[in-house]
Amino acid sequence: QVQLVESGGGLVQPGGSLRLSCAASGFAFSNYAMSWYRQAPGKERELVAVITSAGGITNYADSVKGRFTISRDNAKNTVYLQMNSLKPEDTAAYYCSARFTSAWGRHYDYWGQGTQVTVSS
């Protein structure tokens, strides 16, 4: 059974830090690119960060560049999102996703249930 389980969310003050984890099981984790998305109430889902299957390439939304870091440990089947200098606008439900792209360009995606991050004084 495929599972992606996020953890590490919570309430933090502006300027604080939080580290999210996503534990994967039931699929070949090391063959999948991993991403973090977030969605705030009334807003569209947005891509926050992406990391390639081997961890060699990362990309970030402009709004989080320099503050967030995505990483992965393929031996532990886990992807992380280190969030520093948090701002109120970072408040959202954060989701991790896994993506495999076939030779034909077809995507196979898995999603976690999400973890809530609230940045407030």
Briefly characterize the structure:
By secondary structure, the protein is mainly beta. It contains no helices and 11 strands.
- The proportion of residues in beta strands is over 45%
User: What is the residue-averaged pLDDT?
Assistant: 97
Main pleated sheet: 7 strands, mixed
DSSP summary, beta strand count: 11
Order of helices and strands: EEEEEEEEEEE
Radius of gyration: 14 Å
**Alpha-carbon distance between the two ends:** 40 Å
Total helical segments: 0
State the helicity in percent bands: under 10%
Multimerization status: single chain
Low-confidence stretches: none
Explain what the structure shows.
By secondary structure, the protein is mainly beta. 0% of the residues lie in helices and 53% in strands. The chain has strands at residues 3-7, 10-12, 18-25, 33-39, 46-51, 58-60, 68-73, 78-83, 92-101, 107-111, 115-119. The strands form two sheets. Strands 2, 4, 5, 6, 9, 10 and 11 form a seven-stranded mixed sheet that branches. A four-stranded antiparallel sheet has the order 1-3-8-7, with no helix packed on it. β5 and β6 (58-60) form a beta hairpin. The termini are far apart.
Keywords:
121 residues; mainly beta; 7-stranded mixed sheet; 4-stranded antiparallel sheet; 53% strand; globular
How is the secondary structure organized here?
Layout (H helix, E strand, L loop, with lengths): L2 E5 L2 E3 L5 E8 L7 E7 L6 E6 L6 E3 L7 E6 L4 E6 L8 E10 L5 E5 L3 E5 L2
Parallel strand pairs: 2-11
Antiparallel strand pairs: 1-3, 3-8, 4-5, 4-9, 5-6, 7-8, 9-10, 9-11
